[in-house]
Specification:
9 helices; alpha/beta; nine-stranded mixed beta sheet; single chain
Length: about 425
């Protein structure tokens, strides 16, 4: 299994040190998830957009491929084998002083206002019942005026992320309370310290909702067929490894931009994994034109156009893309509204950045992951496939095979 340690650029480390971020606590030397587990280790409706949801799994909606094909085809005409793309992972929630320290840089500080995400007032919690981590518990941050400010659900380790002023930098500095399962406690100081809360509650249904939302515009053409092969391998492995212990439902969705053949091509959650894999393999790339794409419409469909499980061990949504949303105020307001709804529903939004993602887009994607309690993943140049991949502004990370990395991330979401 490929695992290469990639050091952060020396200039970034020096800048981070100058910003006062502590590296003694191991944050600046973060390597992947910090767990060092290998893949497979136990230790991870129609919204009225685009052409609408396909009538049944396996219907490709008339774009490329034929359901039942053997899979993506490479330039040589043969099938593309998985295990070729390389990737890295960085979880800002586990490297909080590093993340916040970046905003002392004059080139990075403007991104908060550009995208409208202000993450400084973070209130992480860990919820237990009878001394055991409680998953899928609804946790609410209540403001000084007793109005709900932010709501999230705990993950399999009982952890949830709450925020004040995430979309408003002028929020009150204190006076918050945290409510979960009939218990209310004063919120501690904002930061990275997880506040423990003990409640009475029962574990959720042993279920995994797994969704992929994939950009299929023309700029994805350098990597899409490889991504289809890698994601199909990930899904098959998760079915084989986790499908015995949790009920797996899968949804694959695709988006482009206004004026293209479709804006969003959604497929509902299904337990017919083979049919969903056929839907994935059948897609092709086209359209786009300008750099921004309909990310806002895709996210709105992901959370409002699908029936997520009311009770589940984990709900994961992988957003695979190489371009940002349009920067119109109403578009960014929609992205923020979808982010709030994803957090409320307990859906962890995990970006997978492909070639072409620039630094401003990187910081938007990392903000989306932070807001939903997730992690940031990205392709690297090590595979030699696709265009250039801008190395993210992070500390030390490990280069892994993409399929192994994603299986590990999904496994971690199911393992206390």
């Amino acid at each position: 299994m490929l695992r290469l340690r990639r050091l952060a650029p020396r200039s970034l480390l020096l800048t981070t040190l100058a910003a006062g971020c502590s590296m003694a606590d191991g944050e600046a030397n973060y390597t992947g998830s910090g767990e060092g587990v290998s893949a497979g280790d136990s230790g991870a409706g129609d919204s009225g957009v685009g052409t609408g949801a396909a009538s049944s799994a396996g219907d490709a909606g008339g774009d490329g491929g034929v359901p039942g094909d053997s899979g993506p085809v490479g330039d040589s005409g043969g099938p593309i084998e998985p295990g070729q793309l390389t990737a890295g992972e960085w979880r800002d929630l586990d490297n909080w002083s590093f993340w916040r320290g970046l905003f002392s840089r004059t080139d990075i500080q403007p991104y908060e206002a550009q995208w409208g995400f202000f993450t400084a007032q973070r209130y992480p919690v860990v919820v237990t019942a009878d001394g055991v981590a409680l998953a899928d518990a609804i946790v609410t941050l209540v403001g000084p005026d007793e109005a709900p400010v932010w709501q999230a659900r705990t993950d399999v380790r009982g952890e949830a992320e709450l925020f004040a002023g995430l979309f408003d930098a002028g929020a009150p500095a204190d006076g918050y309370t945290i409510s979960v399962a009939g218990t209310s406690v004063p919120a501690g100081a904002p930061g990275s310290q997880k506040q423990p809360i003990a409640v009475t509650g029962a574990p959720p249904t042993a279920a995994l909702d797994l969704m992929f939302v994939i950009d299929t515009t023309g700029s994805m053409g350098d990597e899409l067929s490889y991504l289809q092969s890698e994601l199909a391998d990930v899904i098959a492995r998760v079915r084989d490894q986790a499908g015995q212990s949790v009920a797996l439902r899968l949804s694959v969705n695709f988006y482009r931009d206004d004026g293209d053949e479709y804006v969003v091509r959604p497929f509902p959650f299904t337990t017919d994994i083979d049919a969903a894999l056929a839907d994935l393999a059948a897609q092709t790339y086209d359209g786009g034109g300008d750099t921004p794409e309909a990310v806002d419409v895709a996210l709105a469909d992901a959370i409002s156009g699908h029936e997520w499980s009311e009770s589940a061990t984990a709900r994961l949504c992988f957003l695979v893309l190489d371009a940002p949303p349009h920067e119109d105020p109403q578009v960014l307001a929609s992205v923020r509204a979808s982010t709030r709804k994803l957090a409320e529903q307990g859906v962890r939004l995990i970006p997978l950045a492909a070639s072409g993602v620039d630094q401003p887009t990187e910081f938007l994607l990392r903000s989306l992951a932070i807001a939903t309690g997730a992690t940031y993943t990205f392709l690297t140049d090590d595979s030699g496939i696709g265009g250039d991949h801008t190395e993210p502004t992070i500390g030390t990370f490990e280069v892994e095979l993409l399929n192994d990395l994603l299986v590990r991330v999904i496994s971690r979401a199911l393992t206390p």
